[in-house]
Predict the structure.
Amino acid sequence: MFPTTFSFNEMVKIANNCDDAYDGLFFYAVKTTGIFCRPSCKSRSPKTENITFFQTVEEAKKAGFRPCKKCQPDKIHFNPMMDIVHDAERYILGHYTENLTWKQIAQNIGISPYHLGRIFKKQTARTLRVYLENIRVNKAVHLLRNTNLSLSDICYEVGFQSYSSFYHAFQKQTQYAPQQYRKQIDK
Ligand SMILES: [Zn+2]
């Protein structure tokens, strides 16, 4: 049902973190309340066993869930500019481990890199670069928590081209250096 980008556990974590980088890419529904939300919804985190995921609003509605009044997941697709944003996000999620260029992303969507950059920034209040870094750091955090891979393996595994860019992006987003973060988990 889903692009292989996310595992169930990753989606649970994204929903618990209320990360709006994933809005529009999937929706979570809570069986006990009958309501579905965007990943970024600030409502209380439901129990994992009560969560189910959908890729589209239509699928969630068809399964009998109602849109949350707070985060209004059904309003996400009303802006055509957001389709471009979601196309870019999907492409990045499928290719973030590669040495991505903006040109490559823009070409895949069928608009110019200049317009893509402007639209993305305007709609999401962050640049493509920041978005890409967020995705890579999120994945690095996932690998740090769930594998014994070395920090440099993780750095290249998630698509950073140098350890220093990994280090800076990681620290900016988590407030920890990667090695500090691993120590925190090991405690
Ligand atoms: Zn909600």
Observations:
- The chain is about 55% helix and 5% strand.
- The chain has three domains: 8-76, 79-125, 131-186.
